[in-house]
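Comment on the following before class.
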Amino acid sequence: MGIVTMKKRTAFFIGLLITSCFAVASIGEMPPLPLIENKLYDARIRMRGSRQPPDDIVIAAIDEKSLAHIGRWPWSRNIMAQLVNDLRIAGAGIIAFDVIFAESEPHDE
């Protein structure tokens, strides 16, 4: 078997593999390109390994101790606003919430 034939055969199988990946990915809920990108991103993160967060990042968690002190979740918007004020006073530059405010809250007017 010549080198040219081997290259053509290799190119054919690589193309077949890529086509198969797109076909399998398109069966699922996610379009193939984002799915492949997500898988590649996951692989890059695993290869990179874990990293320690910077010292100037602090996570204020809503944990069992907080729930015992303030009360059951969901907390009122007033409590959340006080939390933001307290974090600002403590020197927070950026405050982000990773919660869903799904329940409406009655307004006293």
